[in-house]
Amino acid sequence: MPRPHSSSPVPRSAPPVSGLSIGQYLIQRLQDHGLRDIFGIPGDYVLNFYGMLEKSPINVVGCTREDCAGFAADAYARINGLGAVCVTYCVGGLSVCNSIAGAYAEKSAVVVISGAPGLGERVNDPLLHHKVRDFRTQYDVFDKLCAAVTELIDPMTAFREIDRVLETAVRRKRPVYIEIPRDMVSVTPYISHTWSPPEVASDPQALKEAVDEAVKWLAKAERPVILADVEIHRFGLEDAVLKLAESAKIPIASTLLGKSVINETHPLYVGIYEGAMGREEVTKFVEESDCVLLLGAFMTDINLGIFTANLDVNRCIYVTSEQLRLRQHHYHGVVLGDFIRALADRKPKTRSRKIPAGVRVPKKKFVLDAPKPITIMRMIARLNEQIDEDTIVIADIGDSLFGASDLTIRGQTEFLSPAYYTSMGFSVPAALGANVARPDSRVVVVCGDGAFQMTGMELSTIVRRKYNPIIIILDNKGYGTERFLHPGEWEYNNIHPWRYSRLPEVLGGGRGYEVRTEGEFDAALSEAWNDSSQMSLVQVHIGKDDSSQALRRLAERLGKKI
Ligand SMILES: Cc1ncc(C[n+]2csc(CCOP(=O)(O)OP(=O)(O)O)c2C)c(N)n1
Ligand SMILES: [Mg+2]
To answer: Distance from the CA of 545 to the center of ligand 2, in angstroms?
Structure first.
């Protein structure tokens, strides 16, 4: 389904500002970059900025924990193009580090805004509450986690600094950090400032030569394939990739991190490529290619099936926001989107490659075996019947992700998971972020019991705001993935069993279901689906020795390394 994205037009310039305070200017520019909502928790060092936010058109979404606010902002950014989290100094900021590290690793444009002690309070280096080693500790930490950082300590440069840092987030799709000492928020710099974002344009000669070379290569290729990955989502290039694939009839595979880059019922869609970890037929189809267009791809261990992928650079056109390489020819100064669009516009001729039977996951109707104990694979198969083009699926780390990778996603960028950084606890807060970004979509979360125990109480905000996601908890009484990676009876993989389905009572909203069989799951899912008035929480009991096929393949590969 088409939707707004960060790549949606940002005004090319804005009238000069004068009379705005530093805090007001930041709020204005966030809106200019398409931000409508912000996540976080206030504290005394950021209260006056919170006051400004609350009076502004930006919707402030209070969360239960800062790391959850970070995950929510990350999911929001993946859908909207830019997200933001606003926290207090150190106790809040340092708690959001893991989420921001994930946003960096997986290229999500999250702006971290943190309050800080006022400059006037820092004279003689007093021991102010929340300070760690010195007043720069938090800034230094975020310097390591972000693509750009700034502290707004000088009224003469504050506006320029805000512009620089926000533009870095939007251009590089990485998190950035803005620290505002509390006595600077209301300072009004008496300067006239005009904002005009720098044009990011390709070097026309390099672009032309690169496209010429690609066109020539494709004309000779016998077995071309596109492998589209995460940057296609981040830069909103799904339609451009589709146009390229359709114009030249090139089949498209995706990676786990890039899943849902194309409607997965599309006739050109091949499946998920993960080297030896993925389905053998897809691996073979991609690796037999004599021209692999790797578009926006991240060569991570998970994407490459723990480095079992067999992709020879001499058979690859490798294009990302950071580099463009055709075999061993490197082109500089070419923007990812410009290359894909220019190549599609040339309507390259190439051999149209048939997708042999058996490569795509064969479509099988789900036939219910009501009394049978439910398994992960059968649960996913039933869920697959239910989801539609308006469903956003969010998978947490664990067998939730491996199982959910078999779902057929109908819309674009409607599968969210931290499939590279793999931090547990992403999914429930991410559901909040997705609901805020796209209130009209139905959000389905698939989450392990271990991951749920980390951040699941963010359901509180979901209930409070009356969203209606369906949260499916795979309850295998512990860290199932680790049981597979390191076989044996290890006590450290067991967790305390919660009565998850009772949580709606504690939270004062939502409805809980507890299921053990296929029939019970089927009934609970149907009921939850039809009940759009509230959050639904489905606790699914599964056997300790149950797993998806993908997890078994992963255990085989990774287990050897452990
Ligand atoms: C924040 C975090 N801590 C620890 C890990 C290591 N880890 C990877 S999978 C896993 C177990 C996940 O358990 P659960 O959420 O119940 O899912 P399951 O494997 O049972 O499907 C752990 C502990 C991690 N990826 N992220
Ligand atoms: Mg588990």
So the answer is: 11
Give the residue carrying structure tokens 């900025």: 49
Ligand 1 within 6 A of CB of 376? no
- Tell me the per-residue pLDDT of 117-129, one tens digit each, with 9 for 90 and over: 999 999 888 888 9
Tokens of 561: 């390394």
Strand order in the sheet with 224-228: 269-272, 252-254, 224-228, 291-295, 316-319, 324-326, 329-331
Give the N- to C-terminal CA distance of the chain in Å, as an integer: 42
What's the rounded Cα separation, in Å, for the pair 213 and 329? 10
> Is pLDDT of 4 > 50?
no
Question: CB of 448 closer than 6 A to ligand 1?
Answer: yes
Bridge partner list, 274:
276
| pLDDT digits 0-9 by tens, 172-204 | 999 999 999 999 999 999 888 888 777 789 999
Q: 555 CB less than 6 Å from ligand 1?
A: no
Q: Partners of 252 in the beta sheet?
A: 226, 269
- In sequence order, what DSSP letters do the residues of 161-204 get, joined into one string? HHHHHHHHHHHHT--EEEEEETTTTT----S-B---PPP----H
Helices within 255-309 (DSSP H only): 280-287
Beta strand 176-181 with 329-331: parallel, antiparallel or unpaired? Answer: unpaired
Q: Report whether residue 482 contacts ligand 1, using a CB cutoff of 6 Å.
A: yes
What pLDDT score does 560 carry? 66
Q: Which of 202, 201, 256, 258 is nearest to 229 (CA)?
A: 258
480 CA closest ligand 1 atom index: 20
Q: With H, G, I as helix, E, B as strand and everything else as coil, classify residue 91.
A: coil
